[in-house]
Specification:
α3 (about 50-65) packs parallel to α4 (about 85-95) and α8 (about 185-190) crosses α14 (about 300-320). This protein has 14 helices and ten strands. About 50% of the residues are buried. It has helices at about 5-10, 25-35, 50-65, 85-95, 110-115, 125-135, 160-170, 185-190, 200-205, 215-220, 245-255, 260-265, 270-275, 300-320, and strands spanning about 15-20, 40-45, 70-75, 100, 120-125, 140-145, 175, 195-200, 225-230, 240. It starts with a helix and ends with a helix. It is of the alpha/beta class. The longest helix has 22 residues, at about 300-320. The strands form two sheets. The chain has an eight-stranded parallel sheet. It has a two-stranded antiparallel ribbon with strand order 9-10.
Length: about 325
């Protein structure tokens, strides 16, 4: 229905991408997104051992014959360092042609990605970063607005302005992220000049996501104001759903607590454990403001099909206004 440079670049049917979510970007979810015509993503931080990552790539090939991406995070506490080159080699070996990079500049790895025939989509929180990425030779940028889950930019620029500005400034495709959860969001992103959207929170609240149902229910029960920003004092601000743990993290932030004390509260290992047990209070849970737009837990295919139908209806309605 919507053919853009992003769909052509990725070889996908619809301009909808699943973000490479820590702990959750696994084959069960990623393959469902790809099979529904979008772009699924698996995350290398989930697989600290190369053999486990290769097993995940094989599983993806068993579950889908559609394109998918691999997320590479270069945040200092998540990066694989020089081992990243081995992960790039594994992607090449298993026919992966798309990578999402985030956290830091992909400069050190661009030659390896390009040598392996892998297209790079770099996630940015500012237009100046996107322009730098374009100069490096990335194939597309994902502009991550303030509304997003995870780590929004320190400049606090929302998706509406960030997408518009990036689309005007860059020559390569722009993909909008942050605050998108439905067809209206897709239509708005396209109108702003984006050529696709990336979603995380919306896909967490899907049948195929491996997280415990309690967390999906928490998203459905949340409003647009039920998230908090913390960790600014340690230079790694993050957006989480309001719960006992994230509010404690806010207190630590306001007290300008140190890195060690803060990380003890926002530990990723705690979140990983709670995502399995269903304990929604004793961990931080990465959720975007678009939680206020999510009211059900359908299948991935129902999410994507519904978005496309709604986006088409919205654009038809706007066209009719001109009459």
């Amino acid at each position: 229905m919507f053919k853009t440079r992003f769909t052509q670049l990725a070889g996908i049917q619809h301009p909808i991408m699943q973000g490479g979510m820590q702990h959750l970007g696994v084959p069960a979810l990623a393959s469902a997104v790809s099979n529904a015509g979008g772009l699924g993503t698996i995350n290398i931080t989930i697989y600290p051992e190369l053999s486990a990552f290769e097993d995940a790539l094989k599983q993806m090939r068993d579950l889908t014959d559609k394109p998918f991406a691999v997320n590479f995070s270069f945040v200092p506490d998540l990066t694989q360092g020089d081992k990243t080159f081995q992960y790039i080699d594994a992607c090449h070996k298993h026919g992966v042609t798309l990578a999402e990079t985030a956290g830091r500049s992909p400069k050190a790895y661009m030659a390896a990605f390009q040598g392996a025939g892998i297209k790079v989509m770099h996630k940015c929180v500012a237009v100046k970063h996107a322009l730098s990425a374009q100069k490096l030779g990335v194939d597309a940028v994902i502009m991550d607005g303030w509304e997003c889950a995870g780590h929004p930019g320190l400049d606090m620029v929302g998706t509406f302005v960030l997408t518009n500005a990036a689309a005007r400034a860059l020559d390569i495709p722009v993909i909008a992220a942050g605050g998108v959860a439905d067809g209206r969001g897709l239509a708005a992103a396209l109108a702003l000049g984006a050529e696709g959207v990336t979603m995380g929170t919306r896909f967490v609240a899907s049948q195929e996501c491996v997280i415990h149902q309690n967390f999906k229910d928490a998203i459905v029960g949340a409003g647009e104001g039920d998230t908090v920003i913390c960790q600014r004092s340690i230079g790694n601000q993050a957006r989480y759903l309001k719960n006992a743990t994230s509010l404690k993290a806010v207190e630590l932030d306001e007290a300008k607590a140190g890195l060690k004390e803060t990380l003890a509260v926002v530990s990723g290992s705690k979140s990983k454990e709670c995502y399995v047990t269903g304990d929604t209070e004793n961990c931080v849970f990465t959720v975007g403001q678009c939680a206020g737009l999510i009211h059900d837990v359908p299948s991935v295919r129902e999410i994507i099909d519904g978005m496309l139908a709604e986006a088409g209806s919205v654009l038809d309605g706007l066209s009719a206004l001109r009459g």
